Structures are given as structure tokens and as C-alpha cells.
Queue: 3 jobs
Job 1
Amino acid sequence: MIALNIENLKGQIAITAEKAGRSPEDVKLVAVSKRFPVSAIHQAYQCGQLHFGENYIQELQGKVSEIPPGAKVHFIGHLQSNKAKIAAEHCHMIETVDSAKLAKKLNNHLLKLEKKLKILVQVNIGGDQNKAGIAPEAAEKLLDELAELDHLEVCGLMTIPPVESDTAKTRGHFVRLRKLGDKLYNKGFFTTRDTVEFSMGMSQDFPIAIEEGATIIRVGTAIFGQRPPLL
Ligand SMILES: *Cc1c(COP(=O)(O)O)cnc(C)c1O
């Protein structure tokens, strides 16, 4: 089932990207394996899936020794600064940096680990009170602070927009994130100057996100099926 889902998804990504005049290789698929057992990660990995998304530090800690060494973990959940060390050790990218405090903690741990880490700044693009992320207006100030932290590679922006019944509204959120990222890029921000990463789009809305410039999509249900409930 997982193999078939990945194959279908790749087809959809390719068709959507090409229709939008983009190259399918410019859209990275992160398979969100939260609440699924490591065996699911192994199944996907055997199909060539390399990037995985995890939301909970404790769950990640439990899984990490059994995750295939070649797999790359994106942390996509809310990260408390007191858990920064674990994330810094085990992740390929932290997509949810939303404070200078967290960023400094990460940087300090990375200094000791003698490594660099890719991060994204999480933006609360819909101004949703229940969602994490910084306000769009505050992004520039945070990026200024992050520029001082040598062990962080600030690659772009991530968002989880509010759930909308109207797809035009969802598209509007993605467009706003993209415009914000482009504006900041033009001001000289982001470590990787060849591209800005935009992590946006999940199982329900990834085609719209690809049309609006997503370079990373985070897909769980459409690969692994219905998630088991939280324990
Ligand atoms: C769970 C989760 C996803 C995946 O959602 P699906 O609807 O299952 O594709 C993507 N991004 C984040 C931040 C998540 O928490």
C-alpha cells in the first residue's frame, strides 16, 4: 500500500509541477511518519523515499536508533528550546524555528557537535491564534538575529495555513508565504542563495502548494493512511 501510494503521489507531483512550468525535481517530498511505527519508515525507504517528517521529540527519540541511517529527518512539530539538543543531533532540517531563543539553543548545541543544520522559519501566515510560528511582520527581525548564528543554515520559510473550506483562501496563504520569502530574499536573507525553500502543502492541498512555489511538501495520510490516535 505504501509503495503504491508513493508511486501515485510522485505521479501527481510530476503532473502538477509540469503543468505549473516547474521541474518535479524541485519539489521535495517529505513523508510525515508521525505516530506510525518505524516499520512504515522502512517500507517507504525501500521505495526510495529519503526524507521523513516527525512532530514529537519523544517519539523521534524512541524511533531514531531504528531509522535507516540514510534517511533524513525533518522536524516539523513545535520544538521547545529544552529539547533543542535532541533535534540538533538527529535531524537533517528543523522546519519549525520560530524564536531567537530556540535558534540560539540550537546553535550552541551545534557548536559542540561541530556541525551545521538546515532550518526553516515557521510563519503563521494565516494569523491563526492556535498555530505556532511568527507573524509575517516579525520575520525580518528574526532573520536578522539568525544571521548571527554560524551553525544554522537558514534555507527558507515553512507554514501550516488554517484549514479553509475554500481552496482560493488556501492558495492565498501559500501566495503570501511565497511573496514574503521572495521579499526577504531580495533583502539578502537566507544562507542558500541559489534557492529559497518553501515548505507548504500537505495531503489535502499539496497540488495548490506546488502551483504556488512549494519546494518541500509534507505528506502523511496520503502515504501512510489514517494516522493512529495519540497515545
Ligand atoms: C501531520 C502533519 C503533516 C501531514 O499531514 P497530512 O494531512 O497527513 O498529510 C504535515 N505537516 C505538519 C506540520 C504536520 O503536523
Job 2
Amino acid sequence: MTTFTARYTQLLERIHQACQQVDRRPEEITLIAVSKTHPVSALLEAYEAGLRHFGENRIDEIAEKRPVLEKQGYTATWHYIADPQSRHTAVVADYADLLHALDRPKIAQRLAHRLQETGRGKLDVLIQVNISGETSKSGVNCQTWETDPSQQQQLLQLITAAQNHPQLHLKGLMTMAPWDVEEPLIRSVFQRTRQLRDWLKTQQPGLQLPYLSMGMTDDFELAIQEGATHIRVGRALFGERH
Ligand SMILES: *Cc1c(COP(=O)(O)O)cnc(C)c1O
């Protein structure tokens, strides 16, 4: 076994166990391989091992890696997992299949414009919510969403803004837990994200938000237990970053 397949096998086992603890099926979880800083050869290896979802957080990497794989005939779903700055929206619209980190109406507008202009048509999007309130994190501020009508309004307005663009298909929420904190706090961030998703569905009849993107190498077990449908894993697959 190569180092990669050994890591991948171990990761699948961890996912399996986390699912078992809460009576979920591993098929419910989409594993996104996050190869940032690693060369495209790492992705080719991942593809050959069976991975079909790739996550990038830098536009130069998604723009480089996707065409290389496609040239090999390797079709995958490409996730852009970082906050796209205004000047990068065209690259995201051109190369991503699912954006995880929409957090303001202006970005929605720019993406929709580009999708229309190029004829690419559509992009799935998740709204990133900042539940922990850490200023280092992007996402819509939802630190006290349960009791703060202004935070609720801001999020509902962004949802409406996204829905106004037929090119954007809103699929759910994404969040990141704080690092280096106790497990109960990490768990509560995931739990409150799921509760927020459930609450949003009560606010708009017919609103479907099936995806919850949460959990990374150090915390995906907790995220799975709290309802994650998409986990974004880097180090457990590719090793430490250079
Ligand atoms: C880097 C990154 C990941 C993966 O992190 P690991 O800890 O290496 O698994 C997941 N999500 C986002 C947004 C990232 O930037």
C-alpha cells in the first residue's frame, strides 16, 4: 500500500466509526479531499484511489489543478472552500461546482453575472456561517443567532439575495469550528449550525438546505455526529502541509 492509500483506508475507517456511533450510513457523508499546498500529483493519486470530490481554497490552485485532471479524463466535483474575494469571483464561477463560503450579496451578484456571461450556467452554493464569533473567521456573523434578530435578518437577506439569481443554487450551510478548544465547544458549534439550518427552513416555506459542510481532520467525527453531510479533509489524507 502507498502512504496515500494507507491514510485513505484509515480515514474511511474513522468515518465509518463516527457514523456507527450515531446510526448514520457512511454513504451519507461526502468526503472532500483538500489538497492545498500539495502538488497536482497528489490529486492524481487521490483520484486513482477513488476520491471524486476535491476542495481548494486558493484560486491559483483550483485553476491549475482542475484542467490537469480533466486532461487525463478524470471528472470530479470541485469545491471552492474559501471566502472568494471580489476580484476572484470569475475564477470561482469558471472552475468550481460548489462554493462553500458565500457570505455577502455582492459576491452572489458577481458570481451570477459571470456564470451568465460565460454560459456556464449554474453554481451550487453554501452560505458560510460564523458561529464561534472568532474575528479570524469569515462567514455571516451568527454568534448569537438564537437571540439576535439582526443576525437572523442579515442571514435571511443573504438567502433572498442568492435566490434572486437563478444561476446560484443554494444548498445549505458551511461552518468552521475554532481550533485548540475543548470538545464540547467544538461540538456546540456544529450543533448550533444544524439548529440554524433547521430554523431557517421554518422561516421560508419550501426552503431546502440539505447540505451541512462541517468538519476537518481534527474534528470531523464530532461534525458527523452532529449531522455533517460534507467533510473537508486535508492532513488526514495528504499529510502535513509544506
Ligand atoms: C485547509 C482547510 C480544510 C482542511 O483542513 P485539515 O485540517 O487539513 O483537514 C478544510 N476546510 C477549509 C476551509 C480549509 O481551509
Job 3
Amino acid sequence: MIPYGKHYIDEDDIDAVVEVLKSDWLTTGPCVEAFEKAISDYVRAPYAIAVSNGTAALHCAMHAIDIGPGDEVIVPAITFVATANCISYLGGKPVFADVDPENLLIDVKKVEEKITSRTKAIIAVDYAGHPCDYHPLRKICTKHGLNLISDACHALGARYHGEPIGSIADLTVFSFHPVKHITTGEGGMVVTARKDFADKMKRFRNHGINSDFRQRERQGSWHYEMVELGYNYRICDIQCALGLSQIKKLSNFLKRRRNIAIHYLEAFYGNDFIIPQSVAPNVEHAYHLFVVRLNSKRTKKSRREIFQLMREKQIGVNVHYMPVHLQAYYRKLLGTGHGDCPVAEHVYKEILSLPIYPTMTMDQINIVIDAICNTLNEP
Ligand SMILES: *Cc1c(COP(=O)(O)O)cnc(C)c1O
């Protein structure tokens, strides 16, 4: 089976982890800070807070901007459920905005009509690794006094108008799950230029314990103060050692992903059955996913059949994602359902993620291209 995504671990990664296992630090130690510094430098954001996973990072971000009961946060209908769940954790309400049919990102034209007096923020998702249109989103946020959050779990290494993702939104979230660009096993990071947000998130990941008091504790005092309710969202040194070793390979990973995407784009050029996610000028796509739409007007087979036939051919295609407003939990909680985001609901029936990962070979790329083209052409 050719999977849709796969991590890459080499001997250097293994050595880096083993070295930590032999050291005095297993959990929060020097590697956590060093990994934070490496990400903060890479994405050009002054503060980086590493946590146990990307979902925890989103939760921290929502806490930083004080989301609570009654608050609304606008999210795209097509994303991973965690983008909406982080709002619900704090009693807030995700409000689903429709997506653009060409690039499947939050449709900027549909955002403003979702704003109410309770709206506090927008979470833009750089779906598949394609940066959102941040300039108009920022304008809307400034006009209505909202925070702009970026769920960039797909987009480490992407750029918008030359600026790295991580340096644009008020808070940007990354994930280091094994299918993402670099991995720590499980892990996540929030980056920001705001010191107040950074301080708040550092407390939140450590039970709400004031870090000033932790510093005092290091200086010999037993006293610490829990000033608010937090969680144990710490990431450990073992994980961050892996992250530090992985980030050295990030530019090569990105190059490989972009090369694979170029091969797919060339192969599907002029094919009316397969429409790849359109790419805006002025962005550098990070290609976490390679998403195509199967033109339902032309193909005689449904996406379900095509998915099944590809799986039978040992191609690990996938679907990212079922619109979140159609999930059972949100239907029940918020009364959302069919008709709320018609574009998302329509494109959902057409989307397919093709395999893309750094170690994918030319042979494997050609096998996938032949398989999808043949599947669509066969009667
Ligand atoms: C992976 C992902 C997350 C969550 O990250 P975890 O590290 O798995 O918790 C959140 N949002 C999006 C868009 C993701 O792809």
C-alpha cells in the first residue's frame, strides 16, 4: 500500500532521542526551549510555546484570547474537527463559514456575514498547506476588532506574499503528528508576537501555575501559585530532541513535497476529470496534502467508488475532510446541518487526497497517476 502520508526518521533522529534518554532530563528540559527557539526562528515569530499536540496548541490559543461561554469564533466548514473543538472546550461556539470551491480555503467573501456582536476571532486554516488570504482576513479582523488565528497544522514552511506562516496571524498553531511536515511523535506549537499571549499560554500548559513562581522555586523557594485553571499540556525533552533533529530536514522535506506536487500538476494538466486544488499567486504551498476534486459532472463513478477502486489498487487515498458542521456532535449541539455551507457540502463529495510524503519515489508517483487516470477512464 502506498500511504497518503508517511513520516521520515533517520539515524540522526534516533541518535538525538537516545542522547536525551541518557541525560538528566526526560520531560521539560533544555530541548524544549531549544525546539521552541528553532521554530520561532524558522517562522519568524518572537514567541513559541511547545505543547503535547496540535489540538492542545489550539486550546492554548483559544485560552490566550479568552474564549468563553457565549463567544463565537468563525472557522471554515472543511477542516479537521480539532479546529472547532478547541472553541467548544471553553464553552464557545464555532460558527462555520463556507469555503472557496477552487482552493477549498475559508471563503473571505463569506466571513463577514457570519460576524455578530459575539464574534471574537477567526481561525483561518491553511488547508492542505495552502496559506489563506491573510490580507483581506486581517482587514476584516481590524474592522470588527477580532483576533486572527491561524491553524497552520498543514502549513509549516508555507509563505504568503513572502512572509512565513507563523509571522502573520495573532496566534499560529502547528502540529508535529507523524503525517505532518516534521514530527515529534505527538506534539504541537503556538507562535505569537504577543508576550501577554505567550505568558498566558505557558501558564495554561502547566496547570495554570504562574511561571514567575516557578522561577522563584528554582531559586530555592517551595512556593508556587496557581492563578487560573490550566492543564498538563507539556511536551517532553525526548520529543523535542526529535523535533530539533527533524527541523534540520524541513527544507528538504518541503522541496520533495513540492516536486511531487509538480509531477501531479503536470500529469493532470488539461484533464477534465481531475481538478487539483488551485494555487494562488504570491503563496508558497507547503503541500501537506495533495487534494484533487473529481469532476462530478464528467465522472460516471462516485467518489466512494473511486476511493474503493484506488484502495483495491493499493493506493492509500484519503478524504480530508467531512464538513465539520455535518458531524453528529455539532448537529446535536448547534443544530447545524445540510444547507449551511453548500459549497463545502458539494466539494466534499468530490475531494480526494492523493499520496504525498518526502520519501515517495518517482515510480510510486507514476503508479498513483496511472491508477487514478485509469480508474476514472475505465468503464
Ligand atoms: C493535525 C491537525 C490538528 C491537530 O493536531 P494534533 O497534533 O493531531 O492534535 C489540528 N488542525 C488541523 C487542521 C490538523 O491537520
